[in-house]
Design brief:
By secondary structure, the chain is of the alpha/beta class. The protein folds into 2 domains: 206 residues, Enolpyruvate transferase domain (UDP-n-acetylglucosamine1-carboxyvinyl-transferase, Chain); 207 residues, Enolpyruvate transferase domain (UDP-n-acetylglucosamine1-carboxyvinyl-transferase, Chain), CATH 3.65.10.10. Helices cover 32% and strands 26% of the residues. Strands 22-23-1-24 form a 4-stranded mixed beta sheet, covered by helices on one side. Helix 5 packs parallel to helix 6, helix 8 packs parallel to helix 10 and helix 10 packs parallel to helix 12. It is globular and about 65 Å long. It starts with a strand and ends with a strand. The relative contact order is 0.16. Bound molecules: ligand EPZ. The site of ligand EPZ has 25 residues, from helix 1, helix 5, helix 6 and helix 12.
């Protein structure tokens, strides 16, 4: 069982290159099978979730090939399998995009219910009601979701809740429906825009991605495309917070600074220096006393829920009382027990986590409880006195490419060991 061993309190210095966006990759790879053609997707992150999707498509009969660690060739000619119920599907949340992609192309699909990080219930009712609005029959058979339609017809769909997955999945299915679909109260995350841009490169007619209203004019067929996905907003934010918690000076490179605005604003509020160039952000001047602040997670462009655990680590060593309010997920505070074991003073009351800053954390053995909680444990180990050993790092490998190498290049004392 691999673990990460970190000796804390090294100030991180230098440059880190951010990989492609996990949450764009896990939508765009399934979308590629909508064309009876060949797609090439570049700037993929070299992470477990991408490898899991590769294995899933391969088992479906799609001819997939890694041209290099970050480029996948996806040949969906002759694909005719619409049943995806094997184990790989249960390993990650984003398998549900196969429903929208197969429904669009073949007008039917059956996919095992997705897995993914466990922080409370993660329903897919909005996905399924969106498919039904387009004219699909939706049936649950045990753990398998079955959807089918004589034909798909464009519809006006209002999302009860802002949902990244449902917005993208409905967009996939509507791309090849007859007529026009509007998705109102749509999610605006960068990876929603990236998925729409990829579909448009394949011949789709999608307008408004990144706004509250997405309009899709259905087309008969899609063709192959070559596409480079956007940098990962959450990986970038994780390294920005790593610089802040270690009192370092780090250039986070190959990013879209605009995507980081909510985090940059919070770091400035806390007293950290932020400098932007067109494709990078420098986080510096972090050595002085950092001030407590409050954070409310919201859909984009609000503060991302996927940066909530990482932010809790920084707030746990800021001077004063901070309050985090988690507005997206019901139960995304499991990591706080581990953070307390590291010496943080954090109390959870419903959707709020109240944090009283301490001078420093103290290293100990902890486990990652999910992907971003695992990232938070790394940040805690980097700033804690002494040694921190992190178990269950399989979660971290789902979403962070070469994590210990990238941190070591910044001067962290971090090693992956088999224990
Ligand atoms: C995506 O999950 C991300 N995952 C999550 O990131 C991220 O936390 C989340 O969006 C919010 O930004 C991927 O993109 C693969 P949602 P998703 O649908 O699409 C409720 C990470 O760390 N909801 O936007 O599953 C839901 O319960 C992962 O990279 C319904 O009620 O999230 C939640 O409260 C963790 N019914 C809210 O909407 C539905 O049918 C937002 O969820 C769908 C969602």
């Amino acid at each position: 069982m691999d673990k990460l061993v970190i000796k804390g309190q090294n100030k991180l210095k230098g440059e880190v290159i951010i990989s492609g966006a996990k949450n764009a990759a896990v939508a765009i790879i399934p979308a590629a099978i909508m064309a009876d053609d060949v797609c090439i997707v570049e700037n993929l992150p070299n992470i477990e979730d991408v490898k899991c999707l590769y294995a899933t498509l391969d088992k479906m009969g799609v001819k997939c090939e890694f041209l290099d660690n970050h480029t996948m060739k996806i040949d969906s000619r002759n694909l005719d399998n619409v049943s995806v119920t094997f184990d790989e599907v249960r390993k990650m949340r984003a398998s549900y995009y196969l429903l929208g992609a197969l429904l669009a192309r073949f007008k039917k699909a059956e996919v095992a219910m997705p897995g993914g990080c466990n922080f409370g219930s993660r329903p897919i009712d909005l996905h399924l009601s969106g498919f039904a609005a387009l004219g699909a029959e939706v049936e649950m058979q045990g753990e398998v979701v079955k959807v089918s339609a004589e034909k798909l017809t464009g519809a006006s769909i209002y999302m009860d809740t802002v949902s990244v997955g449902a917005t993208i999945n409905i967009m996939l299915a509507a791309t090849m429906a007859e007529g026009t679909t509007t998705i109102e109260n749509a999610a605006k995350e960068p990876h929603v825009v990236d998925a729409a841009n990829f579909l448009n490169m394949m011949g789709a007619k999608i307008k408004g991605a990144g706004t509250d209203v997405i309009r899709i004019v259905g087309v008969e067929k899609l063709h192959g495309a070559q596409y480079t996905i956007i940098p990962d907003q959450i990986e970038a934010g994780t390294y920005m917070i790593a610089a802040a918690v270690t009192g370092g000076d780090v250039w986070v490179k190959n990013i879209i600074p605009k995507h980081m605005d909510s985090l940059s604003a919070k770091l400035i509020e806390i007293g950290v220096g932020i400098e932007e160039s067109d494709d990078a952000i420098r986080v510096f001047d972090c050595g002085k006393e950092l001030k407590a602040t409050n954070v409310r997670t919201m859909a984009y462009p609000g503060f991302p829920t996927d940066m909530q655990p990482q932010m809790a680590v920084l707030l746990s060593i800021c001077n004063g009382k901070s309050i985090i309010t988690e507005n997206v997920w019901d139960n995304r505070y499991q990591y706080t027990d581990e953070l307390k074991n590291l010496g943080a003073k954090i109390n959870v009351e419903g959707r709020m986590a109240i944090i009283d800053g301490v001078d420093s954390l103290k290293g100990t053995s902890v486990d990652a409880t999910d992907l971003r909680a695992g990232a938070a444990m790394i940040l805690a180990g980097l700033c804690a006195r002494g040694e921190t050993i992190i178990g269950e790092i399989k979660y971290i490998d789902r979403g962070y490419e070469d994590v210990e190498k990238k941190f070591a290049l910044l001067g962290a004392d971090i090693k992956r060991v088999s224990m």
